Amino acid sequence: MLRAIQGIYMLRPVWAVLLSLLAGAGLIAIAGVNPGEAYAALFGGAFLDYYGLASTLAKMSPILLAGLAVIIPLRVGLLNIGAEGQIYMGGLFSSMAALLLPEMSPVVQVPLCVLAGALGGGLWGLIPGYLKAYRGINEVIITILLNFIAINLVSYVAGGPMMQEGAPYPYSEEIREGLWLPYIMPHTDAHLGVVVGIVLCVVAWFVFRFTTVGFGLGMIGKNPVAATYSGIRVRRNVVAVMFVAGAIGGLAGTFEVLGLKHRLYHLFSPGYGFDGIVVAFLAQLSPLMAPVAAFFLSGLKVGGLIMQRAVGLESTVVEAIQGLVIIFVAASLAFRFDRGNWRRFLERRRLLDAGIAGGITNNSGGRS
Amino acid sequence: MSWAGDVSSLVDFFSTVLRLSTPIVFAALGGVLAERAGVFNVSLEGCILGGAFGAATGAYLLGTPVGGLVFGILFAAAIGCVLAGLAVGLGINQLVTGIAINILVLGLTSYLARLILGADATSTLPGFAPVAIPLLSSIPLIGPVLFNQDPLAYLMYLAVPLSYWFLYRTPWGLNVRAIGDYPVAADTVGVSVPGVRAICVITSCVLGGLGGCYLVLCQVFVFTENMSAGKGWIALAAVILGRWNPALVFVACIFFAFSEALQLRLQFNNPDVPYQLFSMVPFLASFVALVAFAGRVRPPAAIGTKYVRGGK
Fold this sequence. Notes:
heterodimer; A: mainly alpha; B: mainly alpha; two-stranded antiparallel ribbon; 13 helices; about 0% strand; transmembrane (chain A); ABC_transp_permease (chain A); cell membrane (chain A)
């Protein structure tokens, strides 16, 4: 019985998602559209159709990597709202490596581009990490400000120094085909980025679960004072974690450029960094659950557009539903499974049942 | 350039500074109030956006700017209730709740604005007109900048000293500060920690919402998606820079508005340079100011933590 109740608690995100879909149905109904039809178009289009599924996987790449860039620091107690900026810096650095370096064999240049992107994002994550660890400045505000700086910086570069001659709006030259990421589904946009994302999730899970480094990081997240006393260098780890998270965010931008867009566009990320926050909470900070959460969220986004075409409903409703999802998931965090409480509750129920049963027999006994 | 031309361009410039500062000042005062009571209000960005959406809806449906103001305040107060309920009531991480609210408000307002305003989204809404204060507005330079403004800007002039007076000169303000620094003490003398925190959070969101109302009803007269565009975050930076003191926070807001006005002027004067280089300036200024001056700040001691009676 206790185990069953614990299971219900562990499925909190599922209940939260169902509730938010229900609330979303209300929003859809306001617009005078049948919610059942809308959801059927949305999920059918995103998950059951070959091209829809491919689009979902293509969108999943940046969302999953951004999610991981939020999950890893959050397990150490740092809220990285800066994945968006890290995505932009990753895209910037990798497209610079692809377009400005002398042409090399792809075997050399592709890894070079990827490393450059990771470095760009990593450095962008290093700044808030350093300021948090050594200056005590709130990382939330710094990462947000850095987002705006990075977005404007990329817009400037894509619309200024690196802009293609005569382009109608800011974008760079096209990256040559040799440097593109391989596709994983023929005739679609689904590229290798999502696979790399899943592999990194498994690696992160392994590190947190089985290594001393991961154990130390988890300890900083739970109790930094205790971590300090047991000899863990908290500050150094905070900086390192933010660098790694930034690098993963940078990879999200890198793969977006090398795998999908093949140019540096201004405003190329429509808020994937913030979707990463949603993924992190939906996955309850578990790297293994992150792919599931990212898959669902990407499907929601891709399906939103399909639904807009199918039933004529504004696809912005998907953004509203996404907001509801994160609010309900956040609210569900308050309901923790308390074994002792539930055990006492069940015990009381058992006693009550026994008492009632006993009372009945006593009564009947007394009467006879 | 003639002397008269110089003055009129200065008047223009400082009027721009004041116009740009107003929403940030409202939001930052809200931030001060909530953080003094020990609650991070990261959802200020959402409050500004929500206030702007409410103001646009109210002004559109009722046809008057006052109706817009009422709707804007109500929408922001509703956001405040959600934040208070989740962060103070249920004790969920305040930063997480704030971010979640921002994402929700962004999605909800984009969707509802298309439903409600629809095709009329780009038409001009009724708004407040500037009211010149007799005598004062005829002082050279200062007059046209400070005393030829709309009602909400005058409200902002009042809000700064009022919130200073409230925090440092009234028993309620003392309670608020005590709850932010040492809630056990406040609880011991019988002040309801969650109650006061909830009131502060809701008021904080309403102040942020007023900033949004100002954007729609006094500045641009339309609602656009994500029109808060980072102002809430700049307000939060101003709170830290101003050391949680309304007067200093006001100065910090003016500094940010100044850098924003400067970048607009730079954009205008250098049309051949991509404008993004300049639109980065306010955020860069906030960043540099935080890094350079935040130094040894001492935020309210109990900020970010849920108060549990008899807890650690």
